[in-house]
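Notes to self after the Tuesday call (sharing in case useful).
The group wants a holo model before anyone commits to mutagenesis around the pocket. I volunteered. Ligand is S-adenosylmethionine. Logging inputs and output together so the record is complete.
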Amino acid sequence: MPHIKVKPFDKEKIEKLLPKSEILTFRAKPLSGEDELYGVVLEGEEFLLHLKPESDAYLIKYDKVTRPLKVNLLKEAIERTANELKLEILSSNITIHPGKSAYASAYEKKIEDFEEITFPKEKVCVEVGFGSGRHLLYQAQKHPDTLFIGLEIHTPSAQQVLKQIDLLGIDNIWVVNYDARLFLEMLPSNLLEKIYVHFPVPWDKKPHRRVISQAFLEESIRTLKAGGRLELRTDSNNYFWYALETFFALPKVEVEVRKNEALEVTSKYEARWLKMEKDIYDVYVTCKEESEEKKERLDFNFNIVKYREGQEQKLPKKPVVFYGYFVHFERVYKIGDDAMLVKCAFGSFDRPEHKYILVGKEQSRYFVSRPVKTRVNHLAHQKIVEYLTH
Ligand SMILES: C[S@@+](CC[C@H](N)C(=O)[O-])C[C@H]1O[C@@H](n2cnc3c(N)ncnc32)[C@H](O)[C@@H]1O
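Result:
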């Protein structure tokens, strides 16, 4: 990633530059420490640059949380900042060709896309943790009238399958590189024909990381059509019994169990167990009734939050843990006398959000974009608003 090292300079000169700078919008100084953040607007994109003092130089680089997708924007912002401040450059990697960019495909969807999305097919299925994608690709080719949404947290596997989709000319798969445990709540009720959970990681030592849980099943039942089915396939005896117990606690479902049933397609993972003659279990959970439509409208505004003097000192210094989520004000920066920038981690423990919140005298907002509209993020947002208004 682009960065430069410059000769240490008087950072106060940034204050003078700010009113006339073409790209810098604010300077944020931490309550403790020597690093600084600079707000940038370039080609309509907002992000932050990070200045970090080192032993005999200042390093100017990107900020991870607000990093823009286009590396060239970062390069330009760093170069122009150095020029505007007339800094003496000691070393720079700005001319280095940016690394290989991620594989871009129209079939990759972000979790945010599901806040408002139209499904191109009437029938929709979900596959959780598709790994090599053998089952997902097979199903999509066999059922061109159905949209298959594949969820996978392992990015290289997601990228691999996106390449396969393009190579095979398939147009009825969406790949979402996101945690399946948080995804289903983005879907409307009574949508899905099937949810496939094939060979989930058993997590015997860390059961809280398992995909199958009471909450996941409740969301599965809500998103499945009446008559729709969740299909779990596992080689783990332990996971099988755990899942069965969880399934039986559900109302409005029918549970069916099979052992060593051959499927039309064998995943790479399954092939390994078959060679070892391991038992394989299937548990089918059929949803028997329609569910209510989702009504929640999750609002992430900061309408009542305005900067008040000394407020930065009042925020909790340590992470605050609530039931199923947390809020951590990681670092607080002052912007002049009447604004602050708060670096914050919050939401679910497994997939926390990392955001800055720009708290001003007149108005406040997430800098640069608001969190994904999930229930836990919303609970955390409400707590953040509470802390910022106390
Ligand atoms: C044991 S592999 C099985 C892969 C594939 N289903 C098969 O049968 O070959 C489990 C896969 O689930 C993915 N995974 C684990 N937890 C997940 C989660 N919470 N959300 C989405 N994918 C997950 C892993 O990255 C891995 O690719």
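Two things stood out.
Residues 96-100 have pLDDT under 50 and may be disordered.
The first strand starts at residue 3 and ends at 6.
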